[in-house]
Amino acid sequence: SIPVTKKWVGPEGTSATIRVFAGNSEVGSVTLNKANNWKHTFANLEKYKDGKEIKYTVKEDAIANYKSEITGDAASGFTVKNTNIEKVTVPVEKKWVGKSTNKVEVKLLADGTEKGSADLTAADSWKHEFKNLPKYDSADGHEIVYTVKEVKISGYNTVISGTAKDGFTITNTITGKVSIPVTKKWVGPEGTSAT
Fold it and tell me: Are 108 and 114 in contact (CB under 8 A)?
């Protein structure tokens, strides 16, 4: 008997087809799903052929957006692990209220940890896309939360809106101050004061 167990990293698929092989010959298959708890035992398989012990292996039919990894052996059982490899793109756009600077540096964070950065300039219309990012964590399968932050620019207030899915907008509003000098001149005798 050869037990086989299915594990998912990322969201579960609806089903998975596992095939068992004796050498190069397929001798059985099963569809694993939630109903059978993603487990099955291939039972009553011949142990020997022509006096030699048969080497059994398993293979999985490919599942879109998943990488398959098979561990174990016929004696202890096989585990088929599928890791979700979907990718996402995070767009970011820069908007200015008041005069713009030459460029801004925007950092991409995954679950709060910096993963990349990009310079936005007028030449690229103040837009950038962080591409080919994993949607799910390869260790525990949780969906990664992507955020952005801007390297602080003095003289501007920064507001970030939007989402990783729909795109982030970073609005910088100029906050510079000006001084206006005024001088009073008199033609004739000076008065005592002037408001």
Answer: yes
